[in-house]
Amino acid sequence: MRLIKTTFDKVRYSDFFRIFNFKDEFAKGRSFILLNTFIASIANVFISGVFYTGFLTINGIDIVRVGIIAFIPYIAWGFSLFSPVILSKIIKRRFILIFNSIFYYSMVVIGTTVMPIFVHDATQKTIWFGVFLLLGNISNALFGSAASSWHIHFLPKGDDRNIYFSYSNLVSAIVSTFVAITASLLADSLAGSPRQAEIITMSRYLAAAMLVFSTLLLYLIPKEYAYTGIGNKVSVIDIIRIPLRSRKFLLTALIVMIWSCFANINASTWTYYVLNTVQVSYTFIYIGSVVNAVCSAFLLRYWRKAISFYSWSTMLLFTVLVTALTEFPIGFATSQTKWVYVVVSIIQGFNSVGTSLVFANLFYVNLPKGNVDIYIIFWNFTANISVLIGSAFGTWFLSIVEPYAPWYFLGLPFYGSQFLVIIKGVLLLGLCLYIRYVAPMIQPDPVETP
User: Fold this and answer.
1) Is pLDDT of 43 > 60?
2) What's the rounded Cα separation, in Å, for the pair 49 and 270?
């Protein structure tokens, strides 16, 4: 009995229940955000990653068209420059956020799932995919950032913020991996059968319903606080001009811009290559995610301690360096060397725990005081435009190289996707040099104590 009580007390007074509970409005808000993360982690398995690639594949979309479809949503982020102008006039944002989320999922999930029933030509499908994705993402670019300005009130400060993000990442990793592996086993068991396409398609409708439900939890229950900058005149130029005044914030944002560009040159097409050319099963594609989930469960606290001990910039450099170095060997993953993909994915799964934690916290490290909407829009806009540039380059490269593939080296076939990961590795090494150079200039100011 005493052992049970001791165990109960340890859980009750743990970091998790100190950050996530229902004792006050802030902890309550964090708890509902975590619940949203839980539900979204399940739903996103079926509308992104390998299942999204599988959905495009069964609809006759080739690797170049996959790349084109992937960067179309980032074009919509050009409209985000108008977001602070609109949001500065909206005192209460609850219902505009509910509308935005429902409209977004209606376009990018339901619309894209229904459309192939009526459209059969691959080129026409690509166009309609682009239309639905563009409409949904324009809405999200205009209104989606309002969620961050609302939920930033619930985020703790200092080391507690690392704890908050570590548990959020933990829940996301474990839940999404468990669901993905279960669904992948089902998909693999139906390989070659028309039932596989039916399961992938039906799962997208289920995901849409779950995401709408999580939207209601996220925006109907947590308390909505007053926003900074309401009533102030905000111009489009302010979104660029004001963040440029903060040197630390700008130099930190540059890290994310460069990372977003380089890391995404093959983000949309690599899974297509692994699934269709290397012919790795749905289940084994998630090997890195499994390692990530296990490491999140058992090693996340050590990553937090490492960040506290060595500093966030040192750990940022470490995780980016490991990412860069693993790109070179995984370029040798072919249908004859599937083990290379598995081994490197295990290393990447371990490293991704630290990478997710460091980058999740990066926006808040040198966030200036003032109108949060402006800094959020600047951060998201520049990051998404960087993704657009990286994705566009990757798609262009494949469109030039892929028609002449494969080439042979050491007896192995090489395609455009393999050359892209080598290029990606070199570029990320360049990012490491930038982080090394700029780190002393962007150390966060000491946390003010009352």
Assistant:
1) yes
2) 10
